[in-house]
Amino acid sequence: MNDAINLSRMRDAAFTAEVEAQSGQNVSTCYQCGNCTAGCPAGFVYDRQVNQIMRGVQLGLKDEVLNSRSIWMCLSCSTCSLRCPNNIDVAAVMETLRHMARKEGRVAVPKVEKFWFSFLDTVRAFGRTYEIGTMALYMMRSLRLFTDLDLAPEALKKKKLGFRPHVIPGGADAVARIMQRYKERAKREGVRP
Amino acid sequence: MKFAYYPGCSAKGSSADYEKSTQAVCAALGIHLEELPGWNCCGSTPAHAVDTELSAALCARNLDIAAREQAETVLTPCPSCLSNLRHAAKRMENPQFRARVDELLDTPAAAHFPEVTSVMQGIARVYDANAIAAQVKKSLKGVRLAAYYGCLMSRPPEVMDFGDPENPTLMESLLSACGAEMVDFPLKTACCGASFGIPERVMTARNSGRILELATQLGVDAVVVACPLCQMNLDLRQKQAAKEADAFFRMPVLYFTQMMGLAFGIAPEHLGLEKLRVSADELLRKIDGAQAGEGDR
To answer: So what's the ipTM on this one?
Structure first.
């Protein structure tokens, strides 16, 4: 956060409170030791390091935080949470921020969300993940048609991926109904599913 | 000994070899795995990244099946499934959360869920090191291995209950009992880059590269894993990692069940070893060579 930040104008105290409520974490105890950032395996692709995100949450810098690419690139490995000297579940804060951003339709890294949706679409269709289906849907959605093409020859030779989807015996309707209810409820509550 | 069993989706696809070797090793140990009827995907990372309640609902359907089957303990080979199932069970202890999840299900979930644990802990619960050693027909003596757990198996500790979250040692005890020499592997719980191989390749290439680089420096014969995604990133994506690190790797990456199966004298084809991208042939020769040497004496 090198650009000047006008705290009197940009500060949103309600945002800090909302993150704390949803994540169940007391972010005010963060004293910027930087342990989370030091151990983060995804930091090298972040636009804001995780300690900066934590500071942003404390200061109520809603736009800075929710528009950050970092919350989408977090690997959910929980190294930060494990090493936090104040026992803040930092990974839970990152996940909460991702949820809040998604629900408001702020998606700083669309390809990551497209990958998740491609995965979940196969779960909705078959009740179980279908790996080749996930790849195909992702390539279409993201228009990244050459994704992992270098792996294809060996993956095929070794029969690494099942060609046919594995469907729950008796049908995948129960799973599709869970997804449908989730979607309908999100719409009712006025958030992006 | 009988356990309920949740194989997870990878078992039916990219980690068919993990499934095959898990079945073979458990059969050799007299552990009967009863697959949960009609189980569904736990939702993996995408579900919890999108919504905690959606993730919990997908898991709760499975936990509910297990409860109705009157299972005491459910075993799963996959750390991601394990993490999601255990997180869901824990979060469902909160009545408000449970009510929100129940809304998404056909019928409210069972009030109490059976415990879910890893296949590795299930095996260790029934067999101590001596009992494992008694099963060994082809000792792994002289074989140097690095145990790599990945990030999910031991974290967060209060949910996963897998010993020291940065220095778990269960895999080492199982494989030492099989005769292997286990090296100290400081990156044993580092992250491999998870499912970002597809949307952001540099993430898996860089992180898996570090793990492969260290294993290569330590001169191990193989890296041993317990997670389908770790295995894919370290094995199938090994060339991508090498390219990123500007290095050359030829490091076999086996599931711990494949390693144990070899020690139990199970034929490689019954352990799915042909699925490995980086061949384990040299490792097999080493194990056979040690056997021959042993026989001469």
So the answer is: 0.94
Q: Are B39 and B74 in contact (CB under 8 A)?
A: no
**Contact between B155 and A82 using a beta-carbon 8 Å cutoff:** yes
**Helix (H/G/I), strand (E/B), else coil: A178:** helix
Q: Do A178 and B61 touch (CB under 8 A)?
A: yes
Asked whether the beta carbons of residue A123 and residue B240 sit closer than 8 angstroms, the reply is: no
C-alpha B229, offset from chain centre: 9
Distance of residue A51 Cα from the nearest chain B Cα, in angstroms: 19
Does the domain made of A7-103 have the CATH classification 1.10.1060.10?
yes
CB contacts of A138 in chain B (<8 Å) are 198-199
At B189-223, the pLDDT tens digits run 999 999 999 999 999 999 999 999 999 999 999 99
The answer to whether A73 and B203 are in contact (CB under 8 A) is yes
User: Range(s) for CATH 1.10.1060.10 in chain A?
Assistant: 7-103
Does the beta-carbon distance from B191 to A79 stay under 8 Å? Answer: yes
B80-105 exposure pattern, b = at least 16 Cβ within 10 A, e = fewer: bbbbbbbbbbebbeeeebbebbeebb
Identify residue A70 by its one-letter amino acid code.
S
Domains, chain B, ordered by start:
2-120 (1.20.1050.140), 137-296 (3.40.50.11810)
Q: 10 Å Cβ neighbour count for B261?
A: 28
From A89, A131, A177, residue closest to B14, measured CB to CB:
A131
Dihedral sign, Cα of residue A36, residue A42, residue A48, residue A53: negative
How far apart CA B37 and CA B151 sit, in angstroms, is 29
pTM for this model (two decimals): 0.95
Q: In this predicted model, what pLDDT tens digit does every residue of A176-189 receive, in sequence order?
A: 999 999 999 999 99
- Strand-pairing partners, residue B144, are B181
